[in-house]
Amino acid sequence: MNAKRPNLSVDVAGIRLRNPVMPASGTFGYGEEYAPFVDLNRLGAIVTKGLSLNPKAGNPMPRIAETTSGMLNAIGLQNVGIDAFVAKKCPYYREVATPVFANFFGNTLEEYGEVARRLCDVPEVTALELNISCPNVKQGGIVFGTDPKAAAEVVSLVRKANAKPLIVKLSPNVTDITVIARAVEEAGADAISCINTLTGMAVDIRSRRPKIANRTGGLSGPAIRPVAVRMVHQVVQAVKVPVIGIGGIMTAADALEFLIVGARAVQVGTANFIDPAAMLAIIDGIEAFLAEEGLDDINQLIGSLQV
Amino acid sequence: MKNYQTIILSNQEIAPGYWRMRILAPGFAAVAHPGQFVMLRPEQPLPTMLRRPFGIFRTGCLPPECSGLPPREYMELLYKVVGQGTRIMSELHAGDRVELLGPLGRGFAVGDNACAKLLVGGGIGLVPLFMLAEALIAAGHRVRLLMGGRTRDDILAVTEFERLGVETYVSTDDGSLGEEGLVTNVLERKLDEAPCAEVFACGPMPMLAAVERICSARNVPLQVSLEAHMACGVGACLGCVVKGAGHSDQRPNYLCTCKEGPVFAAGQLDWGRAAASGEGCAEGGCRQ
Ligand SMILES: Cc1cc2nc3c(=O)[nH]c(=O)nc-3n(C[C@H](O)[C@H](O)[C@H](O)COP(=O)(O)OP(=O)(O)OC[C@H]3O[C@@H](n4cnc5c(N)ncnc54)[C@H](O)[C@@H]3O)c2cc1C
Ligand SMILES: Cc1cc2nc3c(=O)[nH]c(=O)nc-3n(C[C@H](O)[C@H](O)[C@H](O)COP(=O)(O)O)c2cc1C
Ligand code: FES
What we know:
The structure holds two protein chains of two kinds. Chain A contains eight helices and 18 strands. By secondary structure, chain A is α/β, with parallel strands linked by helices.
């Protein structure tokens, strides 16, 4: 038996990760919440809840509803705000030897820029993940991530405001995701993560009310995985920067689909709720798969799709 | 708190639509406080189903069997079949595997004042009150349980409370068991009798709102246990919030039911709004 363990480490946006598995923003709190169940030092990275300039209260209740093989959420990006994050949440990361990706968003261009600036001198934050699936309140609510020009504009602004590695997270609620992907690459993104949730809706037939107060919400979980794999595949073809695959990953096999179509790493979201140790099982499963396939490096698998 | 990958010891229907599930849980009793909850998931058949939140009814220990097996610690749920998840649970048997995350959340605060302890339960809302009663009785308090339901089938486990030494008062909407009428009528009478009292309540939101009105009018301290739809149960998803005191659109004050609750002092919550929108509860009794 070959006792040598396969290499799981990958490079994303110039950062060496010990393995390609990390939580998806908003499903893992700030990391600390899951520390009783997950050794954070085993993860490829920690991705924070979405942060904004000012604390954000979020949407009215109910905010979540289970759907077939998935869930809808309209949390409304509730978060403590960037300053409280830096003061209260960051010190904890000093005890953890895992890179931290700060996910953030804004309601205006200026807000995006200001949050990026305030993260410059925060050594605990290794990289930025820019969530562009938000409406621009100054421009009639058009979602930054659905318009290539608006997306490029916010990416280049953030690029100038902060020199840390920049991952841009794409919305799937667009006609052609490759157009947005190319626009943000050109504007300076070091990596792209996709997909965010798909906009959906569910109705309680007895009360005839929407199941979540916000009416529509973001669909996540295994229901969206085939859509996500398709989009990651398309984006990988369209850009040169590394891509992080997200969407409905529950098991190692699910993660491997994304890696094979060319994702350099993956994020696990909804699965954390169902099994807090899901990411650890996924990491172990990927390692076992490589051994079974006789591969000694995960990079041999990434992008190995046969067509 | 811990993620137990464990087995069901028994799962029985105790009244039409109500089930009691006993789950093997070594070390659970020592860390569980009255009013805390767990997030449960059967290992099969739906790997993608979100966990369901359930109160901890009681913990216990099976004595060593004749074979000389070590004592087996367990925890028990009482649950009402209301939808897909609870229906699947009701189809499980002894030996089936479940995953149990817990104990979670903040339970009841048991002060050491000498006031009369009034426990108010509506339907399945009696669940978190059992361990509370145990703790209060152990501390030497006189404990009364006021238990309400729509019909006799909704009145559960009252004899178990009586065995602890709790005085119980049952009321049903249709008078099929105990007094006919609302449990809040009984509460008002008991408060009239007691010079000093403290109230602990769990049940449908309209009941909790009525209990709150009664207690605040009399300046009686009240703790309530709330329900909310939950995904994570550990404060990570922010799906389970409830409006806190002084909440407004301009100055929002959302509290996390899974982490800052499920038990709240009544004064922490925004009653006007919470009651009007029926939030914090979709419990069997009030969702129809
Ligand atoms: C802290 C807490 C303690 C609870 N304790 C108990 C208990 O001891 N016994 C008991 O029978 N029930 C209890 N409940 C309610 C129980 O969680 C729901 O009845 C159960 O989740 C319904 O699942 P379902 O799939 O059968 O229903 P469905 O309606 O099919 O569920 C659909 C989704 O809505 C959620 N949901 C539906 N109703 C509720 C509800 N009332 N509260 C929270 N989420 C809900 C489900 O979890 C699921 O995600 C408790 C809830 C909370 C929050
Ligand atoms: C409850 C919840 C909250 C989320 N919050 C955020 C967020 O703050 N920022 C963000 O970029 N994505 C957020 N997402 C999207 C996830 O990061 C992820 O893109 C999506 O859930 C798809 O992955 P999954 O199917 O593995 O959950 C959230 C998802 C859920 C379910
Ligand atoms: S259930 Fe996720 S924060 Fe409460």
